[in-house]
Amino acid sequence: MFTRRALMAAAAVTAIVAGMPAKADDISKLPREHVELVAPPFIHAHEQATKAGPKVIEFKMTIQEKELVIDNEGTKIHAMTFDGSVPGPMMVVHQDDYVELTLVNPETNTMAHNIDFHSATGGLGGGELTLVNPGEQVVLRWKATRAGVFVYHCAPGGPMIPWHVVSGMNGAVMVLPRDGLKDETGKQIKYDKAVYIGEQDFYVPRDEKGKFKSYESAGEAYPDTLEVMRKLTPTHVVFNGKVGSLTGKNALTSKVGERVLIVHSQANRDSRPHLIGGHGDYVWEAGKFANPPEKDLETWFIRGGSAGAALYTFREPGVYAYVTHNLIEAVELGATAHFKVEGTWNDDLMKQVSPPGPIGGGARTGALEAPAQHKH
Amino acid sequence: MQASAPSCPRGGDGALAKRTTSRQEVLVFLALHGKLAAKLIFAATAPLVLAATGPDWREAPDRVPVVHVAAGSFDYRIAGAFDREGRPVDAPVRRFAVGRGLAVMKTQVTVADYDRCVAFGGCAQRTAKTGQRPDAPAVGVSWQDASAYARWYAKATGKAWRLPTDAEWAYVAGSRFADDAVTSDDGSGSFARRWLAKYDEESGRTAVEKAPRPVGGFGENERGVADLAGNVWEWTDTCYLRQGLDAEGEPTGARTVNCGVRVVEGAHRAYVTDFIRDARAGGCAVGIPPANLGFRLVRDEPSRTRRALGRLQSWLARA
Ligand SMILES: [Cu+2]
Asked: Is B12 part of any domain?
């Protein structure tokens, strides 16, 4: 018979075992799991809580330098990507797991790249140990000692660092507590779906006429791009690599009653997510799960170089806009995503008591001719 | 007797222009050959004809090709926002008559046309960064810009050129007019379902290239009018209308007409604030916004009486 006390004792033992530093030999004996990454906004299948012991989770990412269209006007940049997407794919593990990443820089690329995990300890987040030239690959292992959502990015040294980051080379890791997410009382909270929104600021040079310029290669774009970067005024602020990548046909979907975990990363610049028509029921603004979540937030703050997580249960059907609530950036520069939510409308939460109409509700009726032509 | 053809930089209207008869030439002709009766009849009719329509209603000093669209009527889903018993619904379809027929610019007003207006001080400078080719449509123009052009052009030609109404545009566009009913709504009357259905339909619009093509680049419709529903949307004079409908679909309650917002027509219908020169999506809006804002002008064909007088004048001139 399991008593509450017995369960607590078992949990304590597990915690001690999990917390003990494993030697390299021991790590070689740990179970290994290979996980295929998927492009954002999707996240690879994962358990929210696990009773199993730590594992070595293997991931592989191939760096792709490629041209990407970043808006509806066809503006192109020479992007640098982890695995082909901006942001790079999200990796999900549990606390005390080991992440073993194979980072491949194919010969077809032109530049050296590396990876700095904010979730990793030492070695400049791994950056010092992972610099790969075109035609090379490297394998890095790091231990997930802290639970939370964390940014990773390329940091190949000097002025290359910000340039690679604002060319798209960043992503996020989610390290879940082994027993899952918890509310402020320590009670486990679950999500039905998780989405990953990576915000990206781009700095595209313009010609004399104000039109965005395109270049033969990343190298040719570099001097002009650096000039725009140093003004600290992005030309585009977008979610998932492109204006409109999460709206229209690409809109995110949900349904009334569904609990959605929204992970938001910004590797370079501050942001302030806001769900128009909704809230953050539970928000880990700084993204670290050992801290209790804040509740009922209207807008939350993502510090540049960090990721945060918000859990929300949709309560009304319809369209929701998820924006950065600098609305100039959201509307003019592109940082808008949409959720299409199915379900039954709840009049208790909101009702249009009287549709828009003339003030005082005058009662003129008449034949409805085609709209009049208005002379001036 | 014929006036010399005015230069016609874009062709197409030369045949009509050649028949231009100036008032002065008529008088010279009559002075040389006139019979008393003819003189009397002409004296009685000429001021009417000339004041109303100029020497010949088809023979304007127009510099642009014009298509004459015959009078007629058609069923048309009017522009505006409608709610039925408090729920948003598609606009009602109504029979609309174009009583006298319309003279319509065959193509949209071009950069060269517009810049002429700017040069004469009738129009504000365009702000568009694209479409600088003189033979491309003038884009990046607001309703206010387009209206200023219409006023200038009417004055310059002595003819009552104006922006079309939304219904007139639809009539002229014929098969190129896009009905904007929400077709995928399940009819459950659910406000959220209709909202999502509309969202999906608007999301399904295909993107068009932004750079305007030289006029004619999108071909002609069955009436011979060019570039309708291409990548340049056209301002109409129709204001944003909001109207409640009763259970039978008949208007009930007062109507709101907001003329700070005008209907623009093209591949789909849109409502744009009158000083906007570049329509954009964003925020909670979805779908492809009008790629460019431009315009073309129309004028009413003269009435039958005026046309009869015109024919009489021509006959007298030949007599
Ligand atoms: Cu890099």
From this structure: no
Cβ distance A322 to A299 under 8 Å? Answer: no
A334 pLDDT more than 90:
yes
Residues A99 and A169 in one domain: yes
How many angstroms separate the first and last alpha carbons of chain A?
87
| A175 and A100 co-located in one domain | yes
Asked whether residue A172 falls in the same domain as residue A59, the answer is yes
The residues, ordered by sequence, that sit 6+ positions from B316 with a Cβ below 8 Å of its Cβ are B30, B38, B41, B42
For residue B166, report the distance from its CA to the centre of ligand 1, in Å: 53
Domain that holds residue B206: 66-300
One of A47, A298, A332, A347 is an active-site residue; which one? A298
Domain count within chain B: 1
The reply to whether residue B83 touches residue A355, judged by beta carbons under 8 angstroms, is: yes
pLDDT of B218-265, one tens digit each? Answer: 999 999 999 999 999 999 999 999 899 988 888 888 888 899 999 999
Q: Which tokens belong to B93? A: 């379809």
Cα–Cα distance, A269 to A154 (Å, whole number): 15
Is position A279 annotated as part of the catalytic site?
Answer: no
- What ipTM, to 2 d.p.? 0.80
In a shared domain, residues A276 and A169: no
- Chain B residues 127-156 with a CB less than 8 Å from chain A: 129, 147
State how far residue B203 is from chain A, nearest Cα, in angstroms. 4
* Active site annotation includes A169: yes
Average pLDDT score over residue span A152-176: 96
Distance from the alpha carbon of residue A63 to the mean position of ligand 1, in angstroms: 8
Q: Residue A211 and residue B129: Cβ atoms within 8 Å?
A: yes
Query: Separation of A226 CA from ligand 1 center, angstroms?
Result: 15
**How do residues B101-138 score in pLDDT, each as one tens digit?**
999 999 999 999 999 999 999 998 887 555 578 999 99
pLDDT greater than 70 at residue A211: yes
Domain shared by A15 and A160, yes or no? yes
Ligand 1 centroid distance, CA of B264 (Å): 46
Least confident of A69-83, B12-26, B35-49: B12-26
Q: Where are the strands (E) in A244-373, listed by range?
A: 252-255, 259-266, 273-276, 280-284, 294-297, 306-313, 318-324, 336-342
User: What are the backbone angles phi and psi of residue B278, rounded to the nearest 5°?
Assistant: -140, 105
- Which residue would you say has higher pLDDT here, B112 or A368? B112
* Residue of chain B whose alpha carbon sits nearest to that of A238: B282
Chain A interface, best mutation among B191, B235, B262, B286, by max A CB count within 10 A: B286
Instruction: Give me the pLDDT at residue B221, please.
Output: 97
Chain centroid offset of residue A69 CA: 19
The verdict on A368 touching B (C-beta cutoff 8 Å) is: yes
Q: How far is B242 from chain A (nearest CA, A)?
A: 7
Looking at residue A25, its pLDDT comes to: 67
- Taking the C-alpha atoms of residue A84 and residue A64, their distance in angstroms, rounded to an integer, is 5
Q: For residue A223, give the CATH number of its domain.
A: 2.60.40.420
Contact criterion met (CB below 8 Å) for A357 and B244: yes
pTM to 2 decimal places: 0.80
Residues of chain B neighbouring A332 (CB-CB closer than 8 A): 280, 282
Per-residue pLDDT tens digits for B141-172:
999 999 999 999 999 988 999 999 999 999 99
Instruction: Determine, yes or no, domain membership for B231.
Output: yes
Residue B187: which pLDDT band, with cuts at 50, 70 and 90? confident
The reply to whether B98 falls in a domain is yes
Q: Which of A61, A90, A169, A229 is catalytic?
A: A169
